[in-house]
Amino acid sequence: MLQLSEKQIRASFINASLRERKALTLPENFAELSWERRDFLGWRDPKLPLVGYVVATLDEQPEQPIGIMFRKSEGKIRSRAQCSWCEDVDLPNDVVFFNAKAGGQAGRDGDTIGMLVCANFECSTNVRAMKSLPYLGFDREAEVARRITVLQDHVRNFVIRVRDGE
């Protein structure tokens, strides 16, 4: 992912009001983030425990980030859920249900889109983790590359769904 400035991040949100964009708290250690190992920027707001943010880019416009504001569902998931983005089977972290207000008129009408995602958006780290060797001759590097591509596809498709209000 290309490095983004604070101004770019605040301006990127398609489902947040101007007031919400100004009030958002950037991730801790924002200045030291490792951008090259991220497929998207995701974080939870320490001041608002039920709010999370994701900023991603689409292939056709990589210089124009799209930000999405999430709200965590207050309900509990009864069984151990799998993240819809990274599909991590080891589940090193909690997975929670987030709602994102749809973009455009659909969002103004109250439409939301829900998703089970890693609680602190650790997906980029999860897909790069080297798993144990499932069988002799298994190509770990190819599997990591495949998992990165799948994550990027899932995030891109979700961003498009929110942007288009689907």
Describe this structure in words.
With 166 residues, the protein is α+β, with helices and mostly antiparallel strands. It has one domain (6-164). The chain has helices at 6-12, 18-23, 104-108, 123-128, 140-164; strands at residues 41-44, 51-58, 61-72, 95-101, 112-118. Strands 1-2-3-4-5 form a five-stranded antiparallel β-sheet. The longest helix is centred in the C-terminal third of the chain and has 25 residues, at 140-164.
Short description:
With 166 residues, this protein is of the alpha+beta class. The protein has helices at residues 6-12, 18-23, 104-108, 123-128, 140-164, and strands at residues 41-44, 51-58, 61-72, 95-101, 112-118.
Index terms:
166 residues; alpha+beta; five-stranded antiparallel β-sheet; 30% helix
Layout of secondary structure:
Blueprint: H1 6-12, H2 18-23, E1 41-44, E2 51-58, E3 61-72, E4 95-101, H3 104-108, E5 112-118, H4 123-128, H5 140-164
Antiparallel strand pairs: 1-2, 2-3, 3-4, 4-5
* Number of E strands: 5
Overall pLDDT score: 88
| Count of alpha/pi helices | 5
How are the strands ordered across the major sheet?
Answer: 1-2-3-4-5
> What is the rounded distance between the termini?
25 Å
Beta-strand percentage range: 15-25%
SS-based class: alpha+beta
Stretches where pLDDT falls below 50 for ≥5 residues? none
Shape: globular
Oligomer: single chain
The gyration radius over C-alpha positions equals: 16 Å
Order of helices and strands: HHEEEEHEHH
Helix content: 25-40%
The tally of domains stands at: 1
Largest sheet: 5 strands, antiparallel
